[in-house]
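Long-time lurker. I teach an intro course on protein structure, and each term I like to show students one example going from raw sequence to a predicted 3D structure in token notation. This year I'd like something fresh instead of my usual example. Would anyone be willing to generate the tokens for the chain below so I can use it in lecture? Attribution to the forum is fine with me.
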Amino acid sequence: MPKLEISKIHDAYKEGGECPLCSLLDAVERIYLHSFQHSRVMEPNVRVQTNAKGFCPDHWNKLYQQENRLGTALMAHTHLVESRPRIVSRLESLRAEAHKARGGRMRSRLPLSAKDGDVMDCAVRDLADSVDRCFLCDLLAMDRARYCFTVVYLWKKDPEFLPVYRSSRGFCVSHFLDVFAQARKALNREDLALWLDETVPLMTASLERLEGEVEGFGKVHRYESTEPVGETVRTALVRTLQKMAGRMFRPEGK
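-- Reply from a regular --
Happy to contribute to a lecture. Here you go:
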């Protein structure tokens, strides 16, 4: 059984918000980013992973925005040392395959054969995979799995959690799918149906409410509007984007 994160789940639900998992993962991501800027960057087991996987474009950018760019440079250098030969090999294979397909002057006007295309497609997929790999994303995926498992576990096992769960706003769409996947594995058919009976109304009510709130956001931001901007209206856009995109956004002024 995965490690339970009971206290963290309870704390996240106490905060309220559109999605407790977004809050948890946003917090732990900030902890990871900070740690990679300091002592953790030199831990041997961490360097093995960052050398091999590196980070996705989003996390490279977030690391670059941190205060310790020297730490980011060290990780970028050793990752490049390890990944450069593989990237160069794939680039050269693309060029070699293009020249092979070109052949003579007359053949150069013909489209690539299926075999030529397969070799190129393989090289492109490998290059794309090198961009998509991310040590931090892998860490967050393991945390997300534990959080989802704990939510389902508490829903099933903890009567005190049920009122809190039922009064929540559900999840963002992305994390609903994550929790649903865990519920399908952990619950029997009857319990899965009951979980959906409780969760789907939370989701639909939340989406309907946000539709109205973000419409209000648009109205008060028109130039002719003189209505005061309250907290609900001020945060409507960031909460709507969170619900749809599955990540935290910051309201203006924060």
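Some talking points for your students: The CA atoms of residues 111 and 234 lie 55 Å apart. Residues 160-245 form one domain.
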